[in-house]
Amino acid sequence: MSNRIGDKTGITASLICISAIFCDTGKQSAALTILGAAESALKSSGTVLEKIDQLLKEETLIKLQEKIKEQEYLKYYEEGKRMKLDEACQLTINN
How far from chain centre, in Å, is Cα 1? Predict the structure, then answer.
């Protein structure tokens, strides 16, 4: 629904929450890809996250750095940065 009304901040915050869940449930590659997409959306729209969402994003990235090898980390994060928000949303549905 947020996507239909153009609420990119809401979509991005939701993706960050979902990526945190994925990180904690063994879906680290999907979590990292989604975070990359969220970061790209934030930069392109000039949006600033609420403090709680920013903290969750940072905490999740730290956890992922501990769980994933650096080469894979960069691969998935960069892959996400090239995604559109719709694609990132679809990735959450598929996982």
Answer: 18
